[in-house]
Amino acid sequence: MKKQRHFCIYCSDALIKKSEDNVLRDFCPSCKSYFYDNPLPVVATVLDSSRNILLVKRDRQPFKGRWCLPTGFAEAGESIEDAALRELEEETGIKGKILRLLDVDSYKSRFYGDLLFLTFVVEQTGGKLAAGDDSAKAEFCPVGQIPHLAFPPNRRALTAYLKSKRDYWAIMDSIEHADKNSLKPVVEKNALTRRLVNIIVKNKEDIIYSWIEDVANSNSTNEYHKYDRKKLFNICDRIISQIILWLGGLYDINHLKNFHIKLGRERRKEGFKLSETLSALSLIRKHIWGIGIHQDGWRKSIDLYMTFEMQRRMTIFFDLATFYLTQGYEEG
What we know:
With 332 residues, the chain is α+β, with helices and mostly antiparallel strands. Helices cover 47% and strands 22% of the residues.
């Protein structure tokens, strides 16, 4: 249980409660000093290895004997990212690098008071799996067998992570199934589709932001120059999600038709010209290609056949999208 403050740390006089900024705080009448209780920063990490999540079994209170993500307090003098990687290594023996911030959550602990949890997605760069001083065990757990985690912010963050990967994993499973049942040995594992989907998923935000900059400045999309950028992000995000599902074989023509007819109606209702709407759509393909051809791993290994196959699939998608978007626009 977090201890309460009773005496002034400066003069040792008894403290009272006094309101400041509509918050009841500890106050020393002698020193005229307020004492603040700010949230303590806590870091946690999600490390995913082939759909296995790194967890630790706690060796001390609170929640001794329960499982959680690698979690601990940030120390003074270190960045929040360094704190996350330090805790990861101390508790599991794994060295890593930060990929992105996943979640921020507030939590009230009866041991420590108000906490601010910052959870990062990390990638292993080295080290050897071994439980640290604060951990009874450190293990990778399959995503379908995750135990009830000790800290609610851990549960929320991991739920968000698994949700963000759901479509991607479904696509990979679909590709794997198709590969095993229908592909010829020369194109076993469908390397093109795997590579392309991976590139788009990993670079989705870069594609979106580069597209936003383009449509916000291009002469062919003048109406988009004054459009809210958060809305632009949402539009592009939705379309790229359709492309990912299409390439993975999880999206039929009826779904594509309904989505783009609705999109065309939305653009007409908001006063966009059809020519500018179609130009904005075509720019998405431009920026997907722009990201793709600058990926070293793809550029080094993709061959002529794969280039043509990639072009064929993307052309079918955008031809259909253009047709149905125009249909929806004209129906208004």
